[in-house]
Amino acid sequence: MGFKMGIVGLPNVGKSTLFNALTRTAAAQAANFPFCTIEPNVGDVAVPDTRLDALAAIAQSKQIIPTRMTFVDIAGLVKGASKGEGLGNQFLANIREVDAIAHVLRCFEDGDVTHVEGRVDPVADAETIETELMLADLESIEKRLQNIVRKVRGGDKEAVQQERLMLAAKSALEDGKPARVVEVDAEDAKAWKMLQLLTTKPVLYVCNVSEAEAADGNDHSARVAAMAAEQGNAHVIISAQIEEEISQLEAEEAEMFLSEMGLDEAGLDRLIRAGYELLHLETYFTVGPKEARAWTIAQGTSAPKAAGVIHGDFEKGFIRAETIAYDDYVALGGEQPAKEAGKMRAEGKGYVVQDGDVMHFLFNT
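Below the sequence we write its predicted structure tokens.
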């Protein structure tokens, strides 16, 4: 599984510049990293992972297939979006479909680029969008509570559970807090997710700074970092301008450009990694002469469930997983040497897959 991240932001914060850079970067990637535009505002981007290249080189794989990440450029947010202002209804509908929100915040000063509110205040911008999402959630909850009154009175267990969860969310929202602050028990997790509340989505704040501040950020991004930490959300510092320039360069030129700017890696790589951490995702690999491939799973996924990401039959008929840790595979020089060194393990149904595992699944058809 990949995951879908919605890019949101007020006008003139660099949101579209960043999205365009991401899609151009993807389009410029080699054949091993295909890109497709699903819709004009949706980009399917390969997740960069140097481990995959290392594994492919050892196994002499003919094809390299990375895992995927989908970016959705969500347009139309203005104050009043929760009431349908601007493209508010479409904006809110698009957010319901994503796994996480990448909130681009203007953290740069530029007199030539006007701000919709006439000032540069990324924390206030974040509060504007959060408020609109909370208002939309409140309105949604109030309508749904009215719709299930009869079922609740009739003792319908599902309706009673929904009412309890919605009232907990309503209480948090009325207190000025997003629904994600509500602590949900394991038995309620599925029902909670089914509510599709906008403010349960994890948030990654993308601090868009000037070129000169891309390496260390500035006072604006420092304020965003403090806000993110307080909320339990994540943040990343990016210069959308730099990302756009990089997207038009060849790989070697891009590397030199980044080095000159004092950057170790492209902002896209940091954004994806931050998104993975935010959603508690990890990667395992399947490697052979035909192809080396990366697969995304949630942390804590069992071996059969991980096999099911490849094909449902793999999960249904799961027997065992021949597993080699990435470090062992690379250090020993491949599958056979790792096997001879006793580093290949036969893992059963109860095994929890670890990030970087190189796996081969055995199953009954």
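Confidence is low (pLDDT under 50) at residues 27-37.
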